[in-house]
Each structure stands twice: as structure tokens, then as C-alpha cells.
Amino acid sequence: MTFQYISPWMNEELNILRLSARKFLQKEFTPYLESWIEQKYVDKAAWLKAGSAGLLCASIPDQYGGGGGTIAHETVILEELEGCGVGVNFGNTIHSGIVAHYILAYGSEDQRQRWLPQMASGELIGALAMTEPGAGSDLQNIRMRAARNESGYLLNGQKTFITNGHMAGIIVVAAKVNLDAGAKGISLFVVETENCDGFRRGRNLRKIGMHASDTAELFFDNVYVPADNILGGKEGVGFSQMMAQLPIERLLIAISAVAAIERAVEITREYVKEREAFGKRLLDFQNTGFKLAERATEATIARVFIDYCIERAIAGDLDAVTASMAKWWLTDKQSETADVCLQMFGGYGYMEEYPISQMYVDSRVQRIYGGTNEIMKMLIARHL
Ligand SMILES: Cc1cc2nc3c(=O)[nH]c(=O)nc-3n(C[C@H](O)[C@H](O)[C@H](O)COP(=O)(O)OP(=O)(O)OC[C@H]3O[C@@H](n4cnc5c(N)ncnc54)[C@H](O)[C@@H]3O)c2cc1C
């Protein structure tokens, strides 16, 4: 593009991470993407390699095996994942950016020592199970039951649409001890899936996009969890824990949206400069030039806004309303941009071998998960 812009939070160390992530992903991820899309999950071997390369749990302190970085480190990795064409197909946002942070924030010292190093190495893949067939946006209404027994809890119920669900070795599960207690009844339990009696994975769900990402139904039939595995050490604080973590989850979604917008504009710019019709470059048609000019402008606005959010998150003061604004606006822009850019590729844009087609289908879900964009507007409106 014509403008040169370096994010204010970037520095030399992050640049080194960026270059090594790029080299690693181009060698170890891009060539395998097609087979992962076919099988509908990313190989465990790739998780392990990403762990060795320092791409997992980058924002978890090094005493727990993490990279000792901040959200800026997660951002660089997310941007490089988008750049290598894998994007949201690798469930690292949930794994490193969310599940590991639940354990860091609410786990005991023993639990952090036990789980985080294995998550950083890729041995344990993390998932977060909130959504149920009957409760998505309306989280307070979940029906997963946690019945107390002498030494712990028995979980009963079903979860759906769970990212990394097919592969996860550790799952943070939202459940209620008292089903009538609304939000105040929700607690978060850590379930270790290996040799876990009563735990069953359902189908790896077929989706319209994000084909290499495993998304599963999970079934819990008297699944025993020791009392220690309740996050925060007491019942009824799960909803407030989720509300505290959701702004960062939404920010991470917004960051991947901006990376996707930038890539869509860039690959489209290259295409319309090459492709000719009626004896001239597509870019030389005023409609194409104007459309791309609009998208390049919006990409710049998106970048400035996301950098503001990232800086606030690094400083530890990103508020829930701003995170909701970033999530809805930037993912809406991502969808629009993918659609407009695909159109400029003509029929080629509809072909799977052209990355814009994958970007188009992968963009759609960004407006749905992490709280739908309607729910984001509801949260913003409440504070007006
Ligand atoms: C690919 C994928 C991955 C996912 N990964 C995870 C995961 O890892 N963990 C997890 O727990 N969940 C996950 N989800 C679930 C996701 O978070 C939910 O789908 C989402 O929160 C919406 O819930 P729902 O599907 O039940 O839709 P519903 O809540 O039934 O909503 C349906 C429609 O009604 C609208 N609506 C609902 N309530 C209101 C309201 N009060 N005002 C206005 N409009 C409203 C919604 O915006 C939406 O448009 C994933 C979903 C997908 C598709």
C-alpha cells in the first residue's frame, strides 16, 4: 500500500517474534493447511511444533512455561497466522489467549504449575465450554448441572459449538450447582479429558467455513471433577469470571478481524493490478479503484482503532464497552471487506484455490462467536 504505518506498540523484540513466527508458519503450517481442511482439525503434531517454536501461551508468564509476553505477543502471532493463510483455523486464541488465562487468573498455584506448562508445549490443548444447545447468548440460562458429592462434583449435561472440542485435553466448563440461581449459580470447572469416565465427544461439526478448526458437541454423564477443580476455589463466581475475561476474548477476535481486513485488501490490490479486462487493468476501472480506495481507508481506520484497544489492553485498562465496540464493528467490516474484495476477483474469487474465498467463508462466524454482534450492541447501549 502507499502508506507506511507501524503500530505504536510494536518494538524490536516483537519484530523478532514476528519474523520467526512467519518463517515457522510458512514451513510448518501453510503446506499442511489443505490436509487439515480435509480432516477438519489441525494435527496434534502441529500444536507440539507450535509449542516448541514458542507460539503457544505467549502471554503467560515464563515461570509457567509461557513466553512471558503480553497481548502484543498474541497479536503478532495472530497476525502472522492470518498472513500465512491459516487465520482462525488454528484454535490458538481460545487455547492461549483465553483458557490459559482463566487458569492463570483463577487457578491455584498447583493448578497453574500442573496445566500451563503442558498447554505452552502443546501437549494439552485447551477449550472453553459455555454454549449449550438451549443457551448461547443467554448464558445465564445454561442447564449443565454440577451436583456436589463428598469430594467433588458430578457434571451432567451437554455443550455445543466448542472450538478445539474434538482435540482438547483440558476444558473449562460452565455449570450450575443450583439450576435456578441464574448468573449467580454459574461456576467454572476444569475437566481433564484423558481417561475421564462419562465424558464423550460428539461429532466434529460440519461448518460453512473455518474448516480446519475442530468444533464439537460435548456430553457429560456423571463426569467427576474433584472439588479443587472449581476455578477460583468457590461456587457461584463463574459468571463474573467470564465477564472479566470476555473483553480480551472479544479483543482477540477483533485483532484477527483487522489482520484479515488488511490481508484481503492487500491480496486484492495485487490481483486487480495484474488482471486485465477490456484492455486495461481492473484497478484502472473507476469502480474498482474507488471500491478498493474505500476498503484501504477503512483498513487504516480499523488499524488505528485496534491499536488503541491493544495499547489499552497492554496497560490493563481495556473496558468491556470498548472491547464490544471493537468486536462488532471490526468483524462487520471484515465480512463486508471479504465480500467486496471477493467480487473483484470475479469467478476466481469463488474458487477454493484463491485465498479470498476462504477468507470470505471464515469471516462470517466472527460476527457470531464470542457474543454475537447484536449482543455487543446491547452491551454498548446499556452504557449510553
Ligand atoms: C464456529 C463456532 C465456534 C464456537 N466456539 C465456541 C466455544 O469455543 N465455546 C463456546 O462456549 N461457544 C462457542 N461458540 C458458540 C457461540 O458463542 C454462540 O453460537 C453464540 O454466542 C450465539 O449463541 P446461539 O448460537 O445460541 O444463538 P442465539 O443466542 O440463539 O441467538 C440467535 C440470534 O438471536 C440474536 N439474539 C439473541 N439474544 C438477543 C437479544 N437479547 N437481543 C438481540 N438479539 C438477540 C443473536 O444475536 C442471534 O442473531 C461457537 C460458535 C461457532 C459457530
Could you characterize the architecture of this molecule?
The protein is built from 11 helices and 9 strands. With 384 residues, the protein is of the alpha+beta class. The protein folds into 3 domains: 12-121, Acyl-CoA dehydrogenase/oxidase, N-terminal domain (Butyryl-Coa Dehydrogenase, subunit A, domain 1, Orthogonal Bundle); 126-236, Butyryl-CoA Dehydrogenase, subunit A, domain 2 (Beta Barrel); 240-382, Butyryl-CoA Dehydrogenase, subunit A, domain 3 (Up-down Bundle). The strands form 3 sheets. The chain has a 4-stranded antiparallel beta sheet with strand order 2-3-7-6, with no helix packed on it. A hairpin with a 2-residue loop joins strand 8 (276-277) and strand 9. Helix 7 (238-274) runs antiparallel to helix 8. It is globular and about 80 Å long. The model has no long low-confidence stretch (mean pLDDT 96). The structure holds flavin-adenine dinucleotide. The site of flavin-adenine dinucleotide has 22 residues, from strand 1, strand 3 and helix 11.
Identify the notable features of this structure and list them briefly.
384 residues, alpha+beta, Butyryl-Coa Dehydrogenase, subunit A, domain 1, Butyryl-CoA Dehydrogenase, subunit A, domain 2, Butyryl-CoA Dehydrogenase, subunit A, domain 3, 3 domains, 4-stranded antiparallel β-sheet, 48% helix, binds flavin-adenine dinucleotide
